[in-house]
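SAMPLE LOG
Freezer: B-3
Tube label: C17
Construct: single chain, 233 aa
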Amino acid sequence: MCSLQLQSQTFFTLSGTYSKPSSSIPCFSTSPRIFKLKTSASSSSQEFPPNALRRKSDPQWRGGFSLGVDLGLSRTGLALSKGFSVRPLTVLKLRGQKLELQLLQMAEKEEADEFIIGLPKSWDGKETPQSNKVRSIAGRLAVRAAQRGWRVYLQDEHGTSTEASYRMINLGLGKSTRQKSSDAYAAMILLERYFAMSGKDTEIVLPKQMDLQEKLRTGAPPDIDFSPEEFAG
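STRUCTURE (predicted):
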């Protein structure tokens, strides 16, 4: 277990407890626009394709890590995908702006350029009262993420918590560990579903500002680890 003493807010990883780091990221307020992203040759999928669709279209495509987010009332589970390898990452105990800033910092640390956020739905595919809250958080995060060229998508999360519980039991995790890690494993199941479906039926959350949409089209600055040829010479 390790601890970083920065601010009083804390979050929990699968192996310990950490403090929430401070941030000077500016705040932006706007109403997000959300539309359904199809995997057919629509203008939306061509302009803002999720990493899962990019990888399916081009198996040689490199880069683009994904951060899975399972939003709860008081706990938020995170999982990370590097390629097709998905693992539970951490559980945050933050809310509001502090949560949004921490998500951005985690994405930067893990070199992720997209957020896959679980959208609560019932067994018949209908949205729940919690869905509006998730959409609101996703909208605010999308504005901040777009400043860096990062994208935010919504993915149906129905059944992920139950599947996560079975997964942890099958792995032989004890009750205490399962209670602390359940949200992170739910986020992992969400990412596995996202890649299994190659990004189908996800929704992209777009800010209204055209300059932010243009940043999404441009994408994040190239990473030398992913595109060494762009830094050669």
